[in-house]
Amino acid sequence: MEERMDENSPLFAIAVAAELAEMHPQTLRQYDRLGMVVPQRTAGKSRRYSMRDVAQLREIARLGHEGLNLEGIRRILELENENTELRARVRQLETALEEEVLNRPGSRVFAAGPEGRGGVVPLRQGTRPARSTQVVVWRPFGPDA
Fold first, then answer.
1. What are the tens digits of pLDDT across the range 22-65?
2. Could you point out which of 65, 100, 115, 144 has its C-alpha 20 to 30 Å from the C-alpha of 40?
3. Has residue 5 been placed in a domain?
4. Which InterPro entries would you find in this protein's record (predicted)?
């Protein structure tokens, strides 16, 4: 089984992460204690930082240079993380809604009912009417859909 590497993969020991973030390792330990940047841990309890952690450390340094105190920086990071999670959840819900609308029985495709009765029969997307004499009506997406 092959593991996929992404921005959250724990790659860097504290010394390397500190060098990448241009900080002292003790500063990283302090941020860990404060819960501002919490790295993953190995089985031996060593800290392992991801690229996302390093980016957050750099953001902390930038905000600190702009004059924000640690509590202000912590709150900004908390809100940014919450915003990221909410945007991901919105994308999930939009995808689920789109799939629901597209797969709803009879939501977009209809066929004329049996001869002489004049009814309309909803069809599942991708299915064909039972008889070749039936007429299929498709209602496209749009403001009136």
1. 999 999 999 999 999 999 999 999 999 999 999 999 999 999 99
2. 65
3. no
4. DNA-bd_dom_put_sf, MerR-type_HTH_dom, MerR_fam
Residue 132 sits at φ, ψ, to 5 deg, of: -75, -15
| Whether residues 126 and 70 fall in one domain | no
Tens-place pLDDT, residues 72-90: 999 999 999 899 999 999 9
Classify 9 as helix, strand or coil: coil
107 vs 121: CA distance, rounded Å: 11
CATH code of the domain containing 19: 1.10.1660.10
Amino acid at 105: P
Q: Is 112 in contact with 120 (CB distance < 8 Å)?
A: yes
Q: Is the pTM of this model over 0.70?
A: no
Could you write out the DSSP letters of every residue in 66-127?
TT--HHHHHHHHHHHHHHHHHHHHHHHHHHHHHHHHHHSTTSSEEEE-STTT--EEEE-TT-
Q: Is the dihedral of CA 31, 34, 36, 39 positive or negative?
A: positive
Q: Which pLDDT score, from 0 to 100, does residue 56 have?
A: 93
Helix axes 25-34, 51-65, angle to 10 degrees: 90
Structural domains of the chain, count: 2
